[in-house]
Amino acid sequence: MKIRFDESFREYGYEDVLFGRQLEHEGVKILHIDNPLIHLGLEQNEVFLAKTEQAVHNAFQHRDRIDDSSTLLKHYKRLSKWRMRWFFRLHFHIWGRLMKQNLTGRNPGLKVFSFYKLCYICSLK
With contact defined as beta carbons under 8 Å apart, do 12 and 48 qualify? Predict the structure, then answer.
């Protein structure tokens, strides 16, 4: 197979998305299967959030290669086109700490998590 897992990704996150994109580009049909699993333990919220930030940063660094394979990058691209990243960067500056408290607390919100990732990627340079 001429497609290899990209070793240029030095940090956690989104290398699998690029791999899938390359497979698709080569015409490889991907079959998604239902594959249930059992968790033997979950990471602490702080660890999960740190990995998420690292993954978002990685997606940002490789955004030209991953492009529209990621919903987060689609939204980022759209906000860039509309020149609205500043608004989400401002939200991250003002509310980032509070969102992080929610996400590392007892009842984290999934919508807060999605909004946090969008604001976080808009804050990157």
Answer: no
7 CA to centre of own chain: 18
42 three-state secondary structure:
coil
**Domain locations in the chain?**
45-64+71-125
pTM of the model: 0.84
Pair of tokens at residue 68? 């529209």
Does 20 score more than 70 pLDDT?
Answer: yes
Locate tokens 């940063």: which residue?
A: 57
List helix spans (H) across 5-104.
Answer: 15-25, 45-61, 63-66, 71-81, 85-103
Cα–Cα distances (Å) from 27 to 84, 96, 105, 112, in that order, read: 35, 41, 44, 36
pLDDT digits (tens, 9 = 90+) for 92-109: 999 999 999 999 999 999
For tokens 């978002």, name the residue: 56
Radius of gyration over alpha carbons of the chain, in Å? 16
